[in-house]
Amino acid sequence: MATKIYLGSDHNGFHLKEKIFAYLQKRGYDVEDVGDKELDPDDDFPQFAYAAAVKILGSEHNDARAILLCGSGQGMCMAANRIHGIRAAVAWDAQEAKLSRNDNDSNVLCLPARLLQDQDHQWQNVVDTWLNTDFAAAARYIRRNRQLDELA
Questions:
Q1: What gap in Å lies between CA 97 and CA 129, rounded to an integer?
Q2: What pLDDT is stored for residue 106 in this prediction?
Q3: What stretches pass through the bilayer (predicted)?
Q4: Is the whole model's pTM more than 0.85, yes or no?
Q5: What span, in angstroms and rounded, lies between the C-alpha atoms of 139 and 74?
Q6: I need a labelling partner for 10 at 20 to 30 A (CA). Which of 46, 76, 77, 103 fits?
Q7: pLDDT for 65-103, tens place per residue?
Q8: Which residues in the chain land under pLDDT 50?
């Protein structure tokens, strides 16, 4: 079964989200857009972060994940991380994406649309690296993730 990917963005990430949606579909991923469905300059990111988090937690897929976009990626990350069971990380390059998966088992990738909007090769590299990096599952990483869950 292909990895299920939920995509969400506010107005700042809307155009890049559309590109990522097409990119992932072309590569065989099961992609679902959780909003915004049309460009709305007055929308707010928390609702889309929440929608994606709820979808991940309720998914029947073992490895459901989300990619969220806003101007800096930070707002989406903060909003998503408020939901118990979500481990969201902002990444702007492949190294950050890899570490967020390998060490922290991130299930949400938050992208800074302002930085990556016109950098097709860069965001593709970040997305591909994040999707193709497995969690190392070292004892210390498992212990730290458990500690994060206890904080929520």
A1: 6
A2: 98
A3: none
A4: yes
A5: 28
A6: 103
A7: 999 999 999 999 999 999 999 999 999 999 999 999 999
A8: 1
Domains and their CATH numbers in the chain: 4-151 (3.40.1400.10)
Q: Is 102 annotated as a binding residue?
A: no
What is the total residue count of the chain? 152
Q: Using CA of residue 112, residue 54, residue 66, residue 88, what is the dihedral sign? A: positive
144 is in an annotated binding site: yes
| Residues 20 and 9: beta-carbon distance below 8 Å | no
> Which one from 66, 70, 109, 113 is the annotated catalytic residue?
70
What is the overall mean pLDDT for the chain?
A: 96
Annotated ligand binding at 75? The verdict is yes
What does 15-82 look like in DSSP terms, one character per residue? Answer: HHHHHHHHHHHHTT-EEEE-S-SS--TT--THHHHHHHHHHHHH-SSTT-EEEEEESSSHHHHHHHTT
The verdict on whether 70 is a catalytic residue reads yes
Is residue 143 marked as binding? no
